[in-house]
Amino acid sequence: MARIASKSFWYKYQQRYSASKSLLCVGLDPEFSKLPECVKTADNPIWEFNRQIIEATSDYACAYKPNLAFYLADGVRGLEALYSTVNHIPEEIPIILDCKVGDIGSTMSAYVSAFFDSLRVDAITLNPLMGSDVLQPLLKLDVSFAFALCLTSNPSAADFLKNSGMAEDIAAWMQDYPAEKLGAVVGATQSSDLKKMRNLLPGRILLIPGVGAQGGDLEAVLQDAVDTSETPNILINSSRGIIFADSSKDFALAAAREAKKLTQM
């Protein structure tokens, strides 16, 4: 049964946080070479892996974030796994497709149609460097949301984003668009900038990757990136630290333990 995108990401995030008190976004990044041997004999290994991860972690997840690249890498079977994964996630838990697209005109319209109309995710990640044209197709949809890359967690983010003032420029550009439609990606590894970015982006949801395997400081995130105590407006993403916590047949139980830990801080 296809997932029904009848409510906005903004609404679903607020409702899910209110119900679960979790800020955890579980990254579904099923790098094939790292999958446990016990799922590699399945007809669709990525789907079998994700199915077990979702069923083990859904009590702790405020959102899920599949990364498109790992599904494309497995060809048609990988895309089938992605569709099955999206449809298997409980309707009340919002889904962010990590695709980092950013184009103009009919190309961006095609991305938006593929991800929101066909796949039926609730949000995407977006590269804003081609300007406001990137957002226009997305803004035409009633239930669409994007996280613009603002200050990423990778070490070479400093090449352009950290020291040039570009992150501040992107934050200022975002003010022309409603918080209910546009949030920002702000990496946890850029801990010295978390408070500054939150001050530049009040009222917006921040997607914060880099906690866990990349070494981001969870306590710093909770101290500096939270909007208000009533409405934190953050999602703390952990991917490898959860889904690859164990490579045995008990991998899903290990994922649940790690997910639970991140909801108890």
Please render the helix and strand layout as text.
Layout: H1 9-20, E1 24-28, H2 45-57, E2 63-66, H3 68-72, H4 75-88, E3 96-101, H5 105-118, E4 123-126, H6 136-139, E5 146-151, H7 166-174, E6 182-186, H8 194-200, E7 206-208, H9 218-224, E8 234-238, H10 240-243, H11 251-262
Parallel strand pairs: 1-2, 1-8, 3-4, 4-5, 5-6, 6-7, 7-8
Would you give an account of this structure?
This protein has one domain (25-262): Aldolase class I (TIM Barrel, Alpha-Beta Barrel). Helix 2 (45-57) packs across helix 11 (251-262). With 265 residues, it is α/β, with parallel strands linked by helices. It is 38% helix and 14% strand. The mean pLDDT is 92. The chain has an eight-stranded parallel sheet.
Defining traits:
8 strands, globular, alpha/beta, 11 helices, eight-stranded parallel sheet, 265 residues, TIM Barrel
**Helix/strand structural class:** alpha/beta
Number of strands: 8
Give average pLDDT, whole number.
92
Gap between N and C termini:
36 Å
Q: What is the helix/strand order? A: HEHEHHEHEHEHEHEHEHH
Shape: globular
| CATH 2nd-level architecture | Alpha-Beta Barrel
The major beta sheet can be summarized as: 8 strands, parallel
Question: CATH superfamily, called what?
Answer: Aldolase class I
- What percent of the residues sit in helical stretches (DSSP H or I)? 25-40%
- Low-pLDDT segments, ≥5 res: none
CATH topology: TIM Barrel
Q: So how many helices?
A: 11
What is the CATH top level name?
Answer: Alpha Beta
Rounded Rg: 17 Å
Q: Approximately how much beta-strand content do the residues carry?
A: 5-15%
* Spatial strand order of the main sheet: 2-1-8-7-6-5-4-3
Number of domains: 1
